[in-house]
Design goal:
- With 227 residues, the chain is an alpha/beta fold.
- It has a single domain, classed as Rossmann fold (3-Layer(aba) Sandwich), CATH 3.40.50.150.
- Helix content is 30%, strand content 25%.
- It contains seven helices and seven strands.
- A seven-stranded mixed β-sheet has the order 3-2-1-4-5-7-6, with helices on both faces.
- α3 links the parallel β2 and β3.
- The protein is globular.
- The protein starts with 24 loop residues before the first helix and ends with a strand.
Length: 227
C-alpha cells in the first residue's frame, strides 16, 4: 500500500492539544488492522501509549471494553475527553506501559509506541518528542512491549504493534518468537518522511539507517498471538 491510497485523518470531533501526538499514517494503518479483529462486547482491549485516544475510541466503537494507558498526564486527560466526546466508555490510566495495569490480562493489546531513532543519549521526559523518540535504534519501547506482552495477553490473545521498518522489522519478529508468540507482518504502507525524520536525515544516513536520496519509509503492523 502506498501513501497515495489513503491519508491520515484525526477522528471526527477529536481534541488534540499541543503536546499530544496527532494521529498520523501509523495510527490509520493500525486502525485498519484493528478493524479486522473479532471484537465483541466481552473483548478486553489494552491500548499502550494511547496519545489522543484514537485507537482506544475505535476499539470501543467496535464494542470492546477498553483500557487506555499513557505516561503523559496530558495524553491521559486528552484520551478521556475524546472518549467522552465520542460517547464511548474508555478506562484511562496514567503509567509506564504494562506497569499501569498490574495483574490484568487482555484479549487484544494494541500499541503505536514511540519508535523514531534519535541521536539523543537520553529519552525525553517531557514535551512532544516523548511521543516519538525511542533511543538510537528506535527500539526502546518496541522491545519492552515485545517482552511484556505475554504477561498481559489471555490465551489466544493477540498483540497489534505498528512501527517503522527503520527499527528492524525482523528484530521485532525474532523478539516476539523468543517470548513464545506467533508473529507475522499483516499490514505494510510506504509513506513520505515527516518533519522529524527529515530533520534527522543526515544523522540517519550516518547511522546507515537511510540511503542517500531516500525520502519514504515503510510502516508495518506486526500481529503476535499467544497460543
Amino acid at each position: 500500500m502506498t501513501a497515495q491510497a489513503w491519508a491520515p485523518q484525526a477522528p471526527a470531533r477529536a481534541c488534540i492539544p499541543p503536546g499530544v501526538y496527532t494521529p498520523q499514517w501509523d495510527t490509520r494503518l493500525l486502525t485498519r488492522a484493528l478493524s479486522r479483529e473479532d471484537i465483541g462486547s466481552a473483548t478486553e482491549v489494552l491500548d499502550l501509549g494511547t496519545g489522543s485516544g484514537a485507537l482506544a475510541v475505535q476499539a470501543a466503537r467496535l464494542g470492546a471494553r477498553v483500557t487506555a494507558v499513557d505516561i503523559s498526564r496530558l495524553a491521559v486527560l486528552t484520551a478521556r475527553f475524546n472518549a467522552l466526546l465520542a460517547g464511548q466508555r474508555v478506562r484511562c490510566r496514567r503509567g509506564d506501559l504494562t506497569a499501569a495495569v498490574p495483574g490484568r490480562s487482555y484479549d487484544l493489546v494494541v500499541s503505536n509506541p514511540p519508535y523514531v531513532p534519535s541521536p539523543a543519549t537520553a529519552l525525553p521526559h517531557r514535551g512532544l518528542a516523548r511521543a516519538w523518540d525511542a533511543g538510537r535504534d528506535g527500539r526502546v519501547f518496541i522491545d519492552r512491549i515485545c517482552s511484556e506482552a505475554p504477561a498481559v495477553l489471555n490465551p489466544g490473545g493477540a498483540l497489534l504493534l505498528v512501527h517503522s521498518s527503520l527499527c528492524d522489522t525482523q528484530a521485532t519478529l525474532r523478539r516476539l518468537a523468543d517470548v513464545g508468540l506467533r508473529a507475522v507482518v499483516t499490514d505494510r504502507a510506504t509513506v513520505p518522511h515527516g518533519p522529524v525524520l527529515r530533520s534527522r536525515h543526515r544523522w540517519l544516513l550516518q547511522q546507515g539507517l537511510l540511503e542517500d536520496g531516500e525520502n519514504h519509509e515503510e510502516l508495518v503492523v506486526v500481529r503476535a498471538e499467544r497460543a
